[in-house]
């Protein structure tokens, strides 16, 4: 039987022609390319039938030129000056026909006044990247220098990813357990055993680990394109990446698929797979400054497009520096506000991101002259935007200009905050500092002194984050050890509230080591039984160390990578963390949406009550170092009608104590979930052993106990 | 080498043989063959890639297009694709939507 094969049509102009009834046709030629006046919206470069639509705005430009490159070419193949009739307002728009999104890179030259004292820094000798570029070329390989004249090369990203029904998970905020991780650092270490170390795909390979650990949200340190080589003369990398060059572009070198221009798909696939595993994705975004620095910094994009619009400037044209990096984004300027909004909408709609953590977010509430606004337009806009309506918004509510807004960040009943006061209170209590019990009490019930109107979900609780000591180092060092950062110890926080347990740094003393491990367990279990949203730093569950460095932003090395050998070496701590997370998931009484009142409202116990060595008798005195809290709910959402009662005792005293327990009705008994002093340290949730003595329990020195009331034999 | 494609369909199986380079200039011609194949409402689409010398990002886009054009019920089998292309397909999760084989399997 003969087979009839259909052949492709020969490549002729006819085959590529546009359908005459609907598609726009060229109306002119510029620099040898077919063009027509473009559409001003959307901004950026967009696929349209037959070509690409370019739209860029600049308030002070006198002329704008589109510069086109073949992918990777040093020199452009065409420069197209926008005819004046292609301008609408201050928006320059042009459709260029015959361009394929996969083949070219583009940038802009902006002509305009050079008057730095007035804030204008237009200079057409620079080729500027498009702030709306959805992908950037040139940074595909981590650490590889790019000395081309035009470095961060705007591209049009593929947009054909198949989400197969995925969408943001919309987990209730109070149910989250956040895990803060660095994409490269998570699997870059040879011990990770993944096929694609240090990439989105590598992280995706390790999703089973996250599932087993029990976290349901990963917060990724910056994945928007940055240049890790920006401090190249110093020989150090910008490993963390808090220095954005492409706000719409994923970091190409975090993607093994970037050599095919498919970094966008690799990140989308990571999000999709995390969602399939029940894990949300929060991106750490940096809108307080850009990578352009101050007047000594490079001109990459914003400075040459509209310096006066994008940056906060002094009256004589210098850069305000509330970010500590040289410049400050002028976030509440209406144009910049819309840029930020467009960007976040893009990440939510295109990448299905579940939330954002905003670096130095106090900057986002400042006016153009830097003064704090009572009602910052940007923060209100983000809080009320329809596309972002269910997106988690978390502020790092301070900045480098001294504005500290933890507890007072303009929140519109939407914003949560990194609760820096939780971190400090827990650290000081665990150290055994006097006078810390009463503040610690406020912190573990969701900081009602700060967030009563907003509920505990406003408080993202943490003991450690990427910024500062790891948990291991918090209990192994009194002082930071940042010599390797090359700043002679000038960088990094000095107020760490850390304690080395008797010896600075590595120790062979079994007593010191045992105490450190107990202190780590204490911190983890307090964090995971507190009201509010707990956040863990990746690696703390396996005692990751940075050898006392509390500002490892510049180290792309084993100092900062997750060492997967730790899973075996610290199996007991990992198991403890996993069980503490599972215990939190099992007990709705720990995950309150609204603060407890202290009243019983006819129930068996108040929703929160305080205890000491004697039940119902807390010691609030300045020399007290022991406190117990009992959480109770008569019926909880998870199991209607089933009461949930959890008792947490924290002893920061160097001596043990006997605790009198609150009496339970006859059908209930106290069961021991965790005793950080004695093995096995924590039980499998639901299988906690019954306490032999139901009236008294011993708490060891520097120990946390967690008890749960339930019917003997049941769970 | 310029792209050439051939398609035939019988017994519910559409087969497209890819020869030469699929890049941004030729990808639309592959798309046309995919549209023609979809018109035969096959239950299976086999893409023979042994004679494919190059598949660009635009070519990958054609594969995604094939998946979306055919619908979820049609199995798409990609045969003999080069290792680096196979890797990219895996990295972007597209391997969950198609079947990759080193050679044609009898079935």
From TrEMBL, chain A:
GO molecular function: amylo-alpha-1,6-glucosidase activity; isoamylase activity
GO biological process: glycogen catabolic process
SMART domains with a match to the protein in the record: Aamy (SM00642)
Signal peptide, first to last residue: none
Gene3D superfamilies: Glycosidases (3.20.20.80), Golgi alpha-mannosidase II (2.60.40.1180), Immunoglobulins (2.60.40.10)
Enzyme Commission (EC) number: 3.2.1.-
UniProt keyword Cell cycle present: no
Domain of life: Bacteria
Key words of the record: Glycosidase, Hydrolase, Transit peptide
One matching Pfam family: CBM_48
Top enzyme category: hydrolase
Keyword Magnesium: no
CDD domains: AmyAc_Glg_debranch, E_set_GDE_N
Glycosyl hydrolase family 13 catalytic domain location: 180-584
Cross-referenced PANTHER family: GLYCOGEN DEBRANCHING ENZYME
Family indicated by similarity: Belongs to the glycosyl hydrolase 13 family.
Name by which UniProt lists this protein: Glycogen operon protein
Species of origin: Actinophytocola algeriensis
UniProtKB/TrEMBL annotation, chain B:
InterPro entries cross-referenced by the UniProt entry: Anti-sigma_ant, STAS_dom, STAS_dom_sf
Domain STAS: 3-107
Gene3D superfamilies per record: STAS domain
GO molecular function: anti-sigma factor antagonist activity
PANTHER family: ANTI-SIGMA FACTOR ANTAGONIST, ANTI-SIGMA FACTOR ANTAGONIST TM_1081-RELATED-RELATED
UniProt family annotation: Belongs to the anti-sigma-factor antagonist family.
Protein name: Anti-sigma factor antagonist
Lineage: Bacteria, Bacillati, Actinomycetota, Actinomycetes, Pseudonocardiales
